[in-house]
Specification:
This is Alpha/beta fold hydrolase. This protein is α/β, with parallel strands linked by helices. It has one domain (3-180): Rossmann fold (3-Layer(aba) Sandwich). The chain has helices at 21-31, 50-62, 74-85, 143-153, 173-180; strands at 3-8, 35-38, 66-72, 91-98, 130-135, 157-161. The protein has a 6-stranded parallel beta sheet with strand order 2-1-3-4-5-6, sandwiched between helices.
Length: 182
């Protein structure tokens, strides 16, 4: 039996060699023999709306008994909001957040429907393992977002990648290694 992973991609274009596609391809290449990776198309990635992304999560998670979740950038923000506000029946083995912004943290990061409720982190206790990954010199989402999540969530695992990548087009071996260890 293969482990199930649901990967929620970043905002913006998701065509070949765009957005999260390089990271997804790498993960499928590295984990495909042991894991089944679901990568749902999220509605309007160039102008995401939380209510529409929530519907896709409802659909996918309602059909699974146990899952590993990976959220990249906007996908990570979306998963944190969803998991902290919704009653999820699915057993979440692990949650991996990669290069995710905290909406509302800074003037440039204002997307009100993705803002997290104060105290959101208190509603994540049902998740067995939470891990944060971020590039040290991410040119899209500054490292201060990682630092803030780290203080609030107190993850089981956190990794700063010595890189300036946000998209991880060539993959993220540290993430794959961590998933294999779950």
């Amino acid at each position: 039996m293969k482990y199930k992973i649901v990967f929620i991609h970043s905002a913006g274009p998701q065509g070949r060699y765009e957005g999260s596609t390089g990271l997804i391809h790498y993960m499928k290449e590295q984990l495909g023999s042991t894991h089944e990776i679901f990568t749902p198309d999220m509605p309007l990635p160039n102008n995401p709306k939380y209510a529409e992304w929530k519907e896709v999560l409802d659909l996918h998670l309602d059909s699974m008994d146990e899952v590993i979740l990976v959220g990249h950038s906007m996908g990570g923000s979306t998963l944190l909001k969803y998991l902290s506000e919704e009653e999820v029946e699915t057993d979440i083995k692990a949650l991996f957040i990669v290069a995710a912004p905290i909406w509302g943290l800074e003037e440039d990061w204002q997307k009100a429907d993705f803002h997290l409720e104060q105290g959101f982190e208190e509603n994540l206790g049902h998740i067995r393992h939470i891990a944060l990954f971020h590039s040290e010199k991410d040119g899209i989402v500054p490292k201060k977002h990682f630092d803030c999540y780290h203080k609030l969530i107190k993850p089981d695992e956190q990794r700063i990648i010595e890189s300036d990548s946000h998209l991880f087009e060539e993959g993220l071996p540290e993430l794959v290694e961590s998933i294999k260890n779950i």
